[in-house]
UniProtKB/TrEMBL annotation, chain A:
Coiled coil: none annotated. SUPFAM superfamilies: P-loop containing nucleoside triphosphate hydrolases. It is found in: Cell membrane. It comes from Arthrobacter crusticola. GO terms for molecular function: ATP binding; ATP hydrolysis activity. This is ATP-binding cassette domain-containing protein.
Automatic annotation (TrEMBL), chain B:
The chain crosses the membrane at residues 31-47, 67-96, 108-127, 133-153, 189-207, 227-248, 255-277, 303-320, 340-366. This is Xylose transport system permease protein XylH. Part of the binding-protein-dependent transport system for D-xylose. Probably responsible for the translocation of the substrate across the membrane. One of its GO terms (molecular function) is transmembrane transporter activity. GO terms for cellular component: plasma membrane. It is a multi-pass membrane protein. It is found in: Cell membrane. Its main location: membrane. Keywords: Cell inner membrane, Cell membrane, Membrane, Sugar transport, Transmembrane, Transmembrane helix, Transport.
Length: 509, 411
């Protein structure tokens, strides 16, 4: 029998009105990578907060044994002292401090209250090397990419002599290359004796690096599976997460494709500050009525930038090129002009760019087309509530009422609010940027169904995604984007992940 | 399966409160500010042995605080949009001074001076709005500069004198009453103009609320429980009628400035709640990028917010000048801080996106009643400052605490 570095037994945690965890058990063997899977709201994050002392001992029921001893953490510092370090989904680096300062934040290399800068930077460089970063430790953390920031977080964890590293959705914001690097690093740390717990929605990653997986559902432990013999498939894990076998992860659809609605010609976009830097280079693409067109590209390829520059020049400078709507050239200089021409863009980052999290569901839904509900500048609130109520039902937004504040909804439901907002604006072209990011499997299926029904209504849909299986599952045609250029246009019948990846990594000549 | 999941999340595992109790708790943030005002009024009514709510004193509180309440309306809108305006005191002083010059030096009729003053206020607002909206300078900086610039301009305009002797019509706005000769005050009867206005106001409130509820019922929308609705409505009516009774039995009846203020409160509440412009203000303050990506012209919103604030500051300046019958270089000092405090006590969020006109007015009244009550008790201005400061801190602290509790309850 392998030795367990961590055992959590009978953990229950109740919030006022909600039982978030009930009798959860988790056993992690020393030196393994242990994955935790579950739909959003299954209790993964709560369990990790119990473990790391965010919810102190006494606010939950159950026992935790770590490294052979019963432990009762009072706060995060306490758990870190024992060697448990958690890296949250939202990175917690201070952008204005240097990488080295960030690594030793709260744990400064100092003598008599004065910081020893030489030791700080030398030690930081050593830690960076361990995580495979060749980076000057004095650069500002805000100046390096998200992938590197994630690695800096791990370096920071290593500086605390970590025994158990908890990674919450570590690759959610990373491109494939950075993800692969990060996962490789986690494997490397395992070989050095660091145990890891990884929370992820990406099942292929879990299968690639985890030794075992514990599945949570509705605040309960469902099962723990060993991944060593390879008999556990992704579908098997999904079955545990949702309690049913998802035979088809993508809903059936019979496309009926009509005339061309939007065509983009020779679209070139420059960086908003550095005006000479080309971000999108002479892109050509078109989308027809009833068609779902995918845009595949690695992070930094210019996917979002392409979409936002088309959407009323909300990104970039020195934009050139032509837009044709229903065969006629149109000029779209502002977002409101874009909306007027029937173009909509649902952002990849709904919390930052998509929703007013302080406001309720109905006011978010009406936000992009308030004029439709208003006469002479006055909004008809009654009709607004009726409209929003209609979307709540048809989109299956899970909330007590349309006056619920969007900031309190789950990711999937927030996404449905964003989609409702654009559906209410009734565009002809919908550009959906990462429509299922951070959403659990069940809700993803619902989002795909909505996308299909939009196409069935004759709308032209463009889906930008970094998940190739998703594009392959729902699109009729896929463009690949690399370094700002469209490198290929692949009909769905010919598309394979390998082929797309080839075009997505094409170097510029 | 999906539905069992939501049930697990939405259904309370261990009900600790009764339904009514939980409902009230959820409304606590909404009504907390009114309860606070009620408590403070009751407290001072007891401490001053009934002097606080004497008819003439009530009339006095309203007139004394009218310009702060007026400024608080514009200020809460600016704060909801995520800005701040530090210049309103100086702008009010500047416009007051300009109106004095127009009347005393240029011999303009009072109505022309009034109109021109409001236009000047609008131009001042346009100037600041231009820097904030189109040049992208933070409002804190622009209006800090404006505070100095317009204080300076006030002194330059006045050449360090004090203009007094304003015509009677001019002084009506700040210190006048509705039809004072109609029901002479020396007889011990009610002022029927005031009674009529009060009944009209109460009737309009009840009528509009009932109509709104009927519409919502017709559209089959979820609505608040009848008991709660009725309580709220009854409370509103009692407050209006109580105030009416007090003013009607005061020496002079309804202050003109109260009518102006009442109309502005109703109008601006409607603008913030139901107009496209108001919605865009909340959207802009709640999430700037999301508003822009929904096609909201946020620069235009910012610009007109400051124009609006300028006009309201001008109106406040006219009222203040008229009431004191004097335009001086130090007028309107620290008005901005009182207006800002009123908005924050009234529940506006420092980060923008949250706040109401009614809240700001209530916040302003809390400050006003505190001032007046403490003066009646003979508390020195040193202690008054201290207490007002603590009230501001505690009010916002309570709000933050409440928010945190609400969000932790939902994980």
């Amino acid at each position: 029998m392998t030795e367990h570095i961590l055992e959590m037994r009978g953990i229950s945690k109740t919030f006022p009105g909600v039982k978030a965890l009930s009798d959860v058990n988790l056993a992690v063997s020393r030196g393994e990578v242990h994955a935790i899977c579950g739909e959003n709201g299954a209790g993964k994050s709560t369990l990790m907060k119990v473990l790391s002392g965010v919810y102190p001992h006494g606010t939950y029921e159950g026992d935790i044994r770590f490294d052979g001893e019963a432990v009762s953490f009072k706060d995060i510092k306490d758990s870190e002292h024992s060697g448990i370090v958690i890296i949250h989904q939202e990175l917690a680096l201070s952008p204005y401090l240097s990488v080295a300062e960030n690594i030793f934040l709260g744990n400064e290399r100092s003598s008599r209250g004065f910081i020893d800068w030489n030791e700080t930077n030398v030690e930081a460089a050593k830690l960076l090397k361990r995580v495979g970063l060749t980076l000057n430790p004095v650069v500002r953390a805000g100046d390096i990419g998200v992938g590197k920031q994630q690695l800096v977080e791990i370096a920071k964890a290593l500086s605390k002599n970590v025994k158990l590293l908890i990674l919450d959705e570590p690759t959610a914001a990373l491109n494939d290359e950075d993800s692969a690097h990060l996962l490789g690093l986690v494997k490397g740390l395992r070989d050095e004796g660091v145990t890891s717990i990884i929370i992820s929605h990406k099942l292929n990653e879990i299968r690639a690096i985890a030794d075992s997986v514990t599945i949570l559902r509705d605040g309960r432990t469902i099962e723990t599976l060993s991944l060593h013999d390879g008999s556990v498939t992704e579908d098997r894990i999904i079955k545990g997460m949702v309690g049913r076998e998802l035979k088809n992860r993508y809903p059936e659809r019979k496309p009926s494709i009509g005339a061309e609605i939007l065509r983009v010609e020779d679209w070139t976009v420059h960086h908003p500050q550095e005006h000479s830097r080309v971000i999108v280079d002479r892109a050509n693409l078109s989308v027809r009525a009833g068609e779902i067109v995918g845009v595949a590209g690695l992070m930094g390829a210019g996917r979002t930038e392409l979409a936002m520059s088309i959407f009323g020049r909300s990104y970039g400078s020195n934009i050139s090129g032509k837009l044709y709507k229903d065969g006629k050239e149109i000029s779209v200089r502002t977002v409101s002009e874009a909306i007027r021409h029937g173009i909509a863009y649902a952002t990849e980052d709904r919390k930052r760019y998509g929703l007013n999290l302080l406001d309720d569901i109905k006011r978010n839904i009406s936000g992009a087309a308030l004029g439709k509900l208003a006469r002479r500048g006055w909004v008809d609130s009654g009709r607004e509530a009726v409209v929003a109520g209609g979307y709540r039902t048809s989109m299956n937004i899970k909330a007590p009422s349309v006056t619920s504040v969007t900031g309190k909804l789950s990711g999937g439901n927030q996404q449905k609010v964003v989609l409702s907002k654009w559906m209410f604006a009734d565009p002809d072209v919908l550009i959906l940027d990462e429509p299922t990011r951070g959403i659990d499997v069940g809700a993803k299926y619902e989002i795909y169904t909505i996308i299909n029904s939009l196409a069935a209504q004759g709308k032209a849909v463009v889906v930008i995604s970094s998940e190739l299986p998703e594009l392959l599952g729902i699109c009729d045609r896929i463009y690949t984007l690399a370094e700002g250029s469209i490198t290929a246009e692949v009909p769905i019948g010919e598309a394979t992940p390998e082929l797309l990846m080839q075009h997505m990594t094409k170097e510029k000549d | 399966m999906a539905s069992t999941l939501t049930d697990a999340v939405l259904k309370p595992a261990a009900p600790t409160l009764t339904d009514a109790g939980r409902f009230l708790a959820s409304r606590l943030r909404q009504i907390g500010i009114f309860v606070a005002l009620l408590v403070i009024v009751t407290l001072f009514q007891l401490l001053t042995a009934g002097k606080l709510l004497q008819p003439d004193n009530v009339s006095n509180i309203i007139v004394q605080n009218s310009y702060i309440l007026l400024l608080a309306i514009g200020m809460v809108m600016i704060i909801v949009a995520g800005h701040i305006d530090l210049s309103v005191g100086s702008v009010a002083a500047f416009v007051g001074a300009m109106s004095g010059i127009m009347i005393q030096d240029w011999n303009l009729p009072w109505w022309l001076a009034f109109t021109a003053s409001l236009v000047i206020g609008g131009l001042v607002g346009a100037w600041q709005g231009f820097w904030v909206a189109y040049m992208g300078i933070p409002a804190f900086i622009v209006t800090l500069a404006g505070m100095l610039v317009f204080r300076g301009l006030t002194q330059i305009t006045l050449e360090n004198r004090r203009i007094t002797g304003f015509p009677a019509e001019y002084r009506q706005l700040g210190g006048g009453f509705l039809f004072p000769g109609l029901f002479p005050a020396d007889t011990n009867i009610l002022d029927w103009t005031t009674v009529g206005l009060g009944l009209l106001a109460a009737g309009l409130l009840i009528g509009s609320q009932l109509r709104g509820r009927a519409t919502r019922a017709k559209l089959k929308l979820d609505d608040e429980p009848m008991a709660w609705f009725a309580t709220k409505l009854a409370f509103g009516a009692v407050v209006i009628l109580g105030l009416t009774y007090l003013l009607a039995s005061s020496r002079s009846g309804t202050p003109i400035v109260l009518v102006v203020l009442g109309l502005l409160v109703v109008t601006y509440s409607a603008v913030m709640g139901n107009s496209v412009f108001g919605r865009h203000i909340y959207a802009r303050g709640g999430n700037l990028q999301a508003a822009q990506l929904s096609g909201v012209n946020t620069k235009k919103i910012d610009f007109y917010l400051f124009v609006n604030m300028g006009v309201l500051a001008a109106l406040a300046g006219l009222i203040f000048t008229g009431r004191l019958n004097s335009a001086g270089p130090g007028a309107g000092n620290l008005f901005e801080l009182d207006a800002i405090a009123a908005a924050f006590i009234g529940g506006a969020a420092v980060t923008g996106g949250v706040g109401t006109v009614i809240g700001a007015i209530t916040g302003g009244l809390i400050m006003g009643v505190l001032n007046n009550g403490m003066s009646l008790l003979g508390v020195g201005s040193d202690y008054q400052q201290f207490i007002k400061g603590m009230v501001l801190l505690l009010a916002v602290g309570f709000d933050v605490f409440n928010k945190r509790r609400a969000s932790s309850a939902l994980k």
